[in-house]
Amino acid sequence: MAGYPVLSEQDLRVFQWVAGNGGLTPQAAVELGLSEAELRYSAAVLEQLHLLRPLPGGAGGRAGLVAVPPEQAAASLLAPAEAELRRRLAEAERVRAELTRLTPLYSPGAGRTVEPLDEILELDDVIDVISDLTARCRTEVLTCQPGGPRAPHLLEQAFTRDLAMIRRGVRMRTLYQHTSRRHAPTQEYVHRITGAGAEVRTLTALFGRMIAFDRATVIIPHHEAYDGAVVVRDPSAVAYLCAVFDHSWTLADPYTPLGRADGAVTLDEIKQAIVRLLAEGMKDEMIARRLGMSLRTCRKHIAESMETLGASSRFQAGYLSRARAAEPS
């Protein structure tokens, strides 16, 4: 992060020594093979990052420094910056919402009455509307795709359509669920589309399916017709849906296929989400749909989580998970 030093191997060795020996003493330089100047420099770096702190009422100087848990150091060091970032994001969303209110005043034919909602019940008609909006999109498209991996032929169709938009300067951002990171066709699609300039991130669970074009029109699923959709043009509703997307985007992680370094972390997030949903009394089938995975995979994760927690029932697994999360670190 800009403004903060980067930890060197020497700094890490000093921190490990202090953590293991209860405090920084002159013996550290001898055992670590460092000069006094090197030890003093690393101690200063670690203090700047809140990883070392003086003992209350101690003698002061380096001899009074003790190690701080990294999580605690991160919290105290970054809390002001994170608070400022949240303030700036909130202000940006407020300004965006204000400016979006002017869209009907600028758009051609603003004097004509436009239906705020259109219901489309047939799949072919939905495809035609999306194709038309895609062709007319000029600045930005936001896509939220819950439900796990998509069929390979749909991904290929999407790539052709999406690439055409990117090439004419449209910014594209897409949200998938973490479970899509295990799907080879999705991995290939993301590799190709991000190479062209798109951005893709993932979350454990998503708020719902939507496609937003130029922050003026949003397509969402129909609540009754399985193949149907609703076209939303009402400025307030569109602004709200786009704000929900933007909020989820800030919480999401860049797409990385599982199997790389972050795979275990992502899998752990998925299992934590499963246990939280179990604690809410949700059935296996509903959890699987919510997290975009097969029922078989969901039940496998449930069994592994119960074994890890030492739980004899699904409800107990959820209770134990929440109890452990509430324990002070």
Task: Give a short summary of the structure.
The protein has 13 helices and ten strands.
How would you describe what is shown here?
- This protein has 329 residues and is of the alpha+beta class.
- The chain folds into 3 domains: 9-68, Winged helix-like DNA-binding domain superfamily/Winged helix DNA-binding domain (Arc Repressor Mutant, subunit A), CATH 1.10.10; 101-254, Endonuclease, Chain A (2-Layer Sandwich); 263-326, Arc Repressor Mutant, subunit A, CATH 1.10.10.
- It is 54% helix and 13% strand.
- The chain has 13 helices and 10 strands.
- Helix 10 crosses helix 13 (314-326).
Write the layout of secondary structure elements.
Layout: H1 9-21, H2 27-32, H3 36-48, E1 52-54, E2 65-67, H4 70-100, H5 103-106, E3 117-120, H6 123-136, E4 140-144, H7 152-167, E5 171-177, H8 184-195, E6 199-203, E7 210-213, E8 217-221, E9 229-232, H9 235-251, E10 253-254, H10 263-279, H11 284-291, H12 295-309, H13 314-326
Parallel strand pairs: 4-5, 5-6
Antiparallel strand pairs: 1-2, 3-9, 4-7, 6-10, 7-8, 8-9
